[in-house]
Amino acid sequence: MNKKIAILRGINVGGKRKILMKDLKLLCEKLGFDQIETYIQSGNILLNSDKDNSELEKVLYEAIQDKYGFQVPVIVRNSEELKVQVTRNPFFDQKTDITRLHLTFLKEKPKKENLIKIQTYNHEPDKFQLVDKEVFIYCDGKYHQSKLSNNFFEKKLNVGATTRNWKTVLKLIELSEK
What we know:
Blueprint lengths: L1 E7 L12 H10 L3 E6 L4 E6 L3 H16 L5 E5 H10 L12 E6 L5 H7 L8 E5 L2 E5 L11 H8 L3 E5 H11 L2
Antiparallel strand pairs: 1-3, 1-4, 2-3, 5-7, 5-8, 6-7
Helix pairs in contact: 3-6
């Protein structure tokens, strides 16, 4: 079995699309997954599955929609893919204040024309670098004040996205190694 990390977008934000993590864990158990663990209320699920990432995304998306009656985008990475991101982050080193770092996970690799177009945007002092299906973000201030939001990347790249702060990314990696 492969350790997978499912990252849900837009649940438990401002009291909308509320899903308790214990209920999400039970839903995953009913789907036949094991070694299920959730991390914080923003919708991070670690589980074992032999399904490929896109198939697991679809299974979880449909199960959540069936149970709760609303759509929740799901992006899945395996633990190895997540570990690689630490080495790819151009803004991360031992001196970096990790509260300024974020990782936006893209549902799929953007089309070439959108990759070219997004490079024309400059939101200094905030910075981003896109690598494959991830966007590394450095925010000079607070993330919620940055123009480099999920909506920005979804609109400009025409793909689904969800973001986690760097502390959460590191914790998900740690939990995936258990």
